[in-house]
Amino acid sequence: MSFRTRLFFALVLAVLVPLGALAYGVRSEMERRLTSEYEGRIRSLVSVIAADLDGESRTVAARLRALASELGRSDRFRLAAVRGEPSSRRYLLDYAGNAMSLSGLSLLQIQDSAGRILSSGHFRNEFDRLQPELPRMLAAAGGLALVRTRTPDTTILALARVHSFQVGGRRFTIVGGAEAEGRLLGRLARDGELTVALVTRPGWQPDTSQGARILRELPLPFLDLLAQNERVDTARFVITQSFGTIKALRQSVDRWLMIALALTVAVALIGAAWLSSRISRPLRDLARKTSEIDLDRLDQSFESDRPDEIGALSRLLGAMTERLRVGSARLREVERRAAVGDLARQVNHDIKNGLAPIRNVLRHLSQVGRQDPQLLPTAFEDRRSTLESSVEYLETLARNYARLSPALERRPCDLNAVVDQILRNTMSDGVEIQARLSERLPPVLGDSLMVRRILENLIGNAVDSLAGRKGGIVTVSTEETAGSKPDRVRITVADTGPGMTREQLERAFDDFYTTKAGGTGLGLSIVRRLVMDLDGVLRIETEPGAGTRVVLEFPTASSAPAAPAP
Amino acid sequence: MDWARVSNPANDSERLLFRQLFETLVRVDCRGEIRPGIADAWSSDSTGRIWTFTFPEPGQFTDYPPITAGAVASSWKAREPGIQALGIDSAAALDDRTLRVTLRASRDSAPRLFADPLLSVDRRVAAIHDPSGRVVVPNDPPIEFELSQAGDPRDALDRGVDLVVTRDPAVAEYVASRPEFVTFPLPWGRTYALLQFTGTQPISGIPGADSLRRSLASDVVQAEARPAQPPFWWSGPQSCRPDVLMGVTLPPSSRLVYSRTDEIARSLAERIVALSGNTQLRAAGLGEIELAAALRDRRERGYIVFLPRNVAAPCHASAALPTGGWLEPLIDTRARAIVRRGAPPLSIDWSGSINVVGKEERSRGSR
Prior knowledge:
Order of helices and strands of chain A: HHHEEHEEEHEEEHHHEHEEHEEHHEE
Number of strands of chain A: 15
Oligomer: heterodimer
Number of strands of chain B: 22
Radius of gyration of chain A: 64 Å
Largest sheet of chain A: 8 strands, mixed
Distance between the termini of chain A: 55 Å
Helix content of chain A: 40-55%
Strand order of the largest sheet of chain B: 15-19-14-18-16-17
Shape of chain A: rod-shaped
Strand content of chain A: 15-25%
């Protein structure tokens, strides 16, 4: 994994991890606070329900006491209920309805001691019916109870109490109540999430498919007059919580967190990619420059004005390159001096080798001159060839050393012409020399003298390699290379000689390496240097016993860039 | 013009108004005697099928064109099917003052038959409706009506209204101490009944008919009422009611329905519900259209309806009753007319309709 990739992931993680932690924290805190708030609201609601029930109970009781007191003082009630006076009967029948509307009650019934309904407010025309169970059950409930009873056209649930009073020595009961569902629940159930339901069915459960659950229940005695079972059951105020709102809130928070997360991821990805690229780019540049450094190329610049670590590293690399540059120069100087020393030693050695026969001949001639001057001409003649060969050797040496540093002169050069001239002056010594020259060969850019020296060496080497071999052939061919850029001309000097071993080939271009008797070992070294000076290419294809092919390629004059002004 | 509505007004206000706008050839007074209406004389041939009605001379006090025999014949002709259903074969005007009516067969009910509101014609006076809901009938003097069913009638009396028709005993009590008003009862005009259709489970728990009727009349309704007293025109031999439907099972219902605007019907329904002992039975007030639909569809357990106490043509009136059911008469009720002293004289029909007697009628009466 690259540094840039690691940096990228590190930046992404550096953004996402804190954001994820923030999202988790916000959600957890919201959950905790909502739960706490709900608990408080539930406690408050339970208190309100209890207070309302207590208030309703006291209100109903107070109104029943007031009505009983008024009835006790009423002559018309006494006449109708005690004495059965027909003229007051309608007053009695309508009393409960009128009193109910005046007192704000929703249920009002007056019964005699036998349980006969004398007057009913919520159901005016149920008079004379026997319903003794209602006051009895209410008394058994011991206070406020929930009563389900009927009106002419519907049923009502009322929070009811019973009160008894006496008129004319007779006992009467008065049952009164306030409507429970509409008035009480309507006051309580204003919360969209907390719902208060008055449940009279045992085993009732909220609709859990809507995400509701029971939080708290308040029991209450319940009398169902419609069931006609004369039993006190238990009704419940059930507080349920609907998860709809909180669920929607959670979903909303989650949605926005996800949106924020997605946006942050996108921004983090883009930012991390940009930042990692920006951070790693100088390092990549340093790596690229560093990879291009070698001893022949120490001109890379590592200059930087960055104040950070990368700038420091760049400056360190620049200093190191500078030290390498200085070291390389010193090394080259040492190499140059070593080469000059080698050459001087070689020259010294060669000259000594050339001078040694001459000195011997001179010493011999001096000895003959001192001892027998008449024999001096004869001795001279005897040793003359030695002198001449030594001088020739020295001349050859001088010529060869002079060739080590030729002067370069570039101009269009006709290779075919050069090859022709060389072949005319070459002593073949029985070797067949064949020329296969391309007729439409373009001129090359180079020094014709240098080209000649190259070809003389190569052709000479080829002829020398065939010395003593019958049927040897040296082939010189020229041709234009196809498809190369720049356009080049190829010259091939091939022989059918013994070829070279791998070791010989590896040392073929070393100075002073030769396999020829009397060879200087400088021919191919000079050839290589001259070819490189002419921007040419040299390749040797050889195999022991299969001859040698030396292939040269030179750029054509037309492909070379314009020569710089002298 | 909906002549069926004219013959069977929805309430006392409509009855009072229609009586001023429409007139029959003869009328039946509160004692059941035949009195002149549009015609002031009538006779029949020996077969009892052909009746000749003579119209009075136009009076000198009226500003309106008199009703002619031709106008009556034309009006009947325009609604011929309804007229013929009453047994009238044809009507022809011999001149402006003579109308000859041919019955399909001799009828014992004639000439009372000609007092049926279905045979009434308009008095050629244009009632004026003003935006406040008042109706002015250009009588002599003009009569101004408030057709309100809501509100306290005592307020109307205190505002100076001359005539109030009410069924509320409290109003009568209110004016008892007011010397400027005279109160008199109108004829027993309505009979309330429980209607149940064949195929419906009878409402149980109702005590015997006599004691129930007494209780309903005395304790239940807030109106002047008495136990319904036979004979009932819809159950006698003259009723011509078709046989009840048999073998029909109606959908179960737990409602005893009544007209939402009728307090007497509501009280009756509630008392029957209270006495039934059936905790599922409910009293339900319906609007006029809903009640008519429920009667047509027979989808309720029972219906509290009222019928006119007296009709001129029982056979024809019975044909208009819902078929396939039985009627349990409950109570008769009557309204009271409260009249300011000094108001124009009134005449009261057998049906309980009140007619404000104008100058022309007074002059005819004097003749």
